[in-house]
Structure formats: C-alpha cells, structure tokens
Amino acid sequence: MNIAILTLSASDNCGSLLQAYALQQILIRLGYKTDILNFCTKRSKKMYRIFHPSYIKKPRKLLGLFLNYHDLKKQQNDYHDFRKNHLNMTLQKYCNSSDLAIIDGQYDYIICGSDQVWNTNMWDFDEAYLLTWCKNSKKIAYAVSLGDQKNRNIQKQKETLISTNDFFMISVREKSAVKKLLEITSRNVNLCLDPTLLLSMEDWQMLTDINLTPTTPYIFYYSYNYEDEIKNQLVSDFSKITNLPVYVINISRWCDGKEKKYGFHICKKSGPIAFLSLMQHCTYSLVESFHGTLFSYIFEKQFWFLKNTNDNILDDRINDIMEVLDKKDRILHPNNLVDKIKEEVNYTTTSYEFIELKKASIDFLSRLKEQD
Q1: Is the peptide bond between 236 and the residue preceding it cis, with omega within 30 degrees of 0?
Q2: What is the pLDDT of residue 158?
Q3: Which of 22, 53, 324, 329 has CA atoms 20 to 30 A from the CA of 303?
C-alpha cells in the first residue's frame, strides 16, 4: 500500500519537520510505503527567506543580517539537511494544487497532517491541504489542527472547510477542532495525538547528537519567535535564580543582538537535530511552543510553559494537550516565578486519557490496512 503525506514539510520549523518525520516513521512501521510530498508554496518560500524587505526600514535588523549572513545560511542548511537525511521527500517538487493533481491516483491514500494544515488564519495556509485536487486516491486527515478558535472569521472557515466532506477518514488534534468540524461537515471526526507522541523517548534519542550541547548544566529556551520581551525577561530571571546559562537556537531570531540584553547564548547549530539534542540534555526547558511542550514531556524534562500575563489561560492547542498530558500546573508567568520555580514535574504516572488517545491514534492509522 502506497501513502503520500502532505504537510508543512517546507517550513524551517522544528515542530513541523519533526511531526512529519514521526508520522512517516509510524506509517513505515505499520507496513506502508510512505513518501512525503515535496510541497512548497510561494508563501512558504517568502516566509523562510533570509532577507525580508521589511528589514530595509529596520536598520538594526538589516545590519544584523549582513553581519550574520554566514550563520543564517548555515541555519537554512540545517533544516535542509534534516529533510534530505530523514524525510522521504519526493524528488518532484510541487508548488500548488495543479502541480499536485498530477499524482492523483498514484497513491492509495493521501494523508494531510499533522500540524496546522487546516488553520485558515495561518499566513502560509494553502487550500491544497484540503486535497480538493485529489479525486482518485482516498483522502485522510491525520491529527490536523485548525489552530486556536478564538478571533476566527467563522464564515470564511466554514466556506473553506466544507470541502472536507468527501474525506475517507478525518482525525484532528484538538477537542475544539472536533466540535468545529462536526458543525461544518457531515463526517465522523476522530481525536488523535500529534504523531511526535507516538514515538518513544528512545526513538527520538537516536537522532540526537551530544556534541551539539553544552558540557555543563544549562537551560534550553525554545520559542517560535523569541519576540516577547516579558517572556525573555522571565527566562533571564529564571536563569539568575538557578545560576544556569540559557541556550537558544535560530540565529534568524536574534539578528538584532537582543540576546546580549538577556544574557542568552545562541547555539551554533539550528534545525531539528540541534533542537532535539538541546532538549534531551538540558536541566530545564522553558518553552513557548506546542512542540516544545511535547518534546519536554517526551524527554521527561523539568519544564515550564511561559506566559506574559499573570493568568493560566491558554489557547486551544496548548490547553488541550496540557490536559491530555495532565501537566496544566506547568505554567510560568512573572507573578508566580519565585513560588513555582522549585516545583518538579511528576513523571511517575501517565494520564489515562493519554494512554487511550495513543492507542486510538495507532488504531486510526492501522485501520487503513483493513480497507486495502
């Protein structure tokens, strides 16, 4: 049985590439021949280019780009190397639905997901992820995310997602997404885990490289953009209290030199391998990211999810997974830093909901064999 995965594999984003790898590995273990479609839209290319035109109006960032150009190219190559070495990417590249329509019928199943492929608010969202170009292969959605449901253009979302009515099987990542799709479509909607949680800690350790990590205890701070000054200061305060240095990745987020203000160290390597290595060996992980949270859990780290407001309100994506993992107490904000910093994470038990969802997720993917 041949399966093609359509996901955010063009993103220079650790979570996007690691969830693609995880789904690929699980499908291979289940006995499926699996490819990842080499899909990259114009918007994706723009989103992850080294030079952005807006830098012209930001002299400090523009200067930082020129001073760090060599390291920025290395960062880009780190993501490229992961795709080349660990993802079964198709040789053929696709840029839009018309390109993808050529392969319709060449695979038994086309699986879209996981990640936020159905988040219509995402800047690089593309209707190709709805598989409307696919008429002959069976269409599957695995653990897709619609993103946070607050502040949505409900009508636009409904008009876009109604096309998923002809999917063979659908599963989503958040409970809010189950509710939303049941309102929009007539299909049965399953709840499944992000594929990164279907692999074991030992599976992920096989990809790590201890040579990429500091030789002494450290804090790993991981965010999708590192732009929030309150969170950056929170991490800096955490560092002073614990007397441990902070390491970050992705030089593209630090071209303006702001890491010096907070005393952070930039790891020379970026990409998924550096991310996994720093996560595995850190003393504390401080995260502002969905997949940062998941890998903190997978590696059983003493972790905190960061907030810049003094409350425990989370968006749908983080709230749902924290409930499943039974880790909603791991929220750190400026007002509770001193009281919370010494609280350790309990990994002696696994939540019943997580165990059941993991089984249901594997069952969902195994069910494809029954249809063969």
Answers
A1: no
A2: 87
A3: 22
- Asked whether 303 and 293 are in contact (CB, 8 A), the reply is yes
- State the Cα–Cα distance between residues 75 and 40, nearest whole angstrom: 18
pLDDT per residue as tens digits for the range 198-223: 999 999 999 999 999 999 999 999 99
What lies within 8 Å, CB to CB, of 342 at 6+ separation is none
- Exposure of 132 by Cβ count < 10 A (0-12 exposed, 13-18 middle, 19+ buried)? middle
pLDDT digits (tens, 9 = 90+) for 169-201: 999 999 999 999 998 888 899 999 999 999 999
Radius of gyration of the chain, Cα coordinates, nearest whole angstrom: 20
d(CA 137, CA 105): 5
How long a stretch of residues is the chain? 372
- Higher pLDDT among residues 304 and 257, named by residue: 304
Backbone angle region of 98, left / alpha / beta, with phi > 0 → left and psi within -120 to 50 → alpha: alpha
